[in-house]
Amino acid sequence: MRRELRLDGVGRRYGLRGPWVLRGVELGVPPGALVRVEGANGTGKSTLLRLLAGIDAPTEGRVTGRPRTAYVPERFPPALPFTAAQYLTHLGTVHGLSRRAAARAAGHWLERLGAAGYADTRLSRLSKGSSQKVAVAQALLAEPELLVLDEAWTGLDADARGELERAVAERTAVGGAVVFVDHDPRRLAGVPAAVYAVRDGSLHRRTGPAPVSAGPRVVVRVQGPAGAVLPADVHRTAASAEETGPGSHTLTVPASHSDVLLRTLLTATPPWHVVSVHAPEERR
């Protein structure tokens, strides 16, 4: 059973007498959680994410319950002596995949992110956007239990940004946790999430409604056997679920997560019948 990742009384500073970047951080990240971290530049967001990813160790406090973790840094080092496919295959073996499975996963994620044409290009020759696609792919290829994203959407084209949002939905739908920072307040808006802000070296949980538009949504009407309970993964993906009759439910889901929700319903045992899929303003 996956455990909750916990930071208890965690502080971080650089150097014996350096100023504290973070101090007294209390944070739990349970399986299936989506956590957004906000804050002005230089407040310590990236330091917090590096602590969560295990890249940095706390100066004080404890980190417990660490799951298998993958990390997309704010800046990806492209000057490495590999092609994109070689680098991803190597990282896959580091994560415990066989070489064949790692090569297959590398090809899969390069294809999904629109970078398959650069598989045999050396990292040093890739554009910033293509390098970022490799950075995202290396974090996703081994299906991590915790995915940590530091401005991971920056530099991606629109199709790749959408694909990363779908990957986040896939991770949380199967019980993986995702912690992310992004400069766009609309990123993953409307998806059930915990939101924290870093201020003055401390972490504060935001309460109340989100201050931005929820973004495009889709309404899905489904019918299952009388008395059937919606799969648990549905509740990790849908923004809301209303029971409208015996076995009948109306689900509202962010548009970026609709594919994952439908796949979950159609592959359930027994499968659910999808009655309709439409935008909220459309009447049925």
TrEMBL record:
<dbReference type="InterPro" id="IPR003593">
    <property type="entry name" value="AAA+_ATPase"/>
</dbReference>
<dbReference type="GO" id="GO:0005524">
    <property type="term" value="F:ATP binding"/>
</dbReference>
<protein>
    <submittedName>
        <fullName>ATP-binding cassette domain-containing protein</fullName>
    </submittedName>
</protein>
<keyword id="KW-0813">Transport</keyword>
<dbReference type="InterPro" id="IPR027417">
    <property type="entry name" value="P-loop_NTPase"/>
</dbReference>
<dbReference type="InterPro" id="IPR051782">
    <property type="entry name" value="ABC_Transporter_VariousFunc"/>
</dbReference>
<keyword id="KW-0547">Nucleotide-binding</keyword>
<dbReference type="InterPro" id="IPR003439">
    <property type="entry name" value="ABC_transporter-like_ATP-bd"/>
</dbReference>
<feature type="domain" description="ABC transporter">
    <location>
        <begin position="5"/>
        <end position="225"/>
    </location>
</feature>
<keyword id="KW-0067">ATP-binding</keyword>
<dbReference type="Pfam" id="PF00005">
    <property type="entry name" value="ABC_tran"/>
</dbReference>
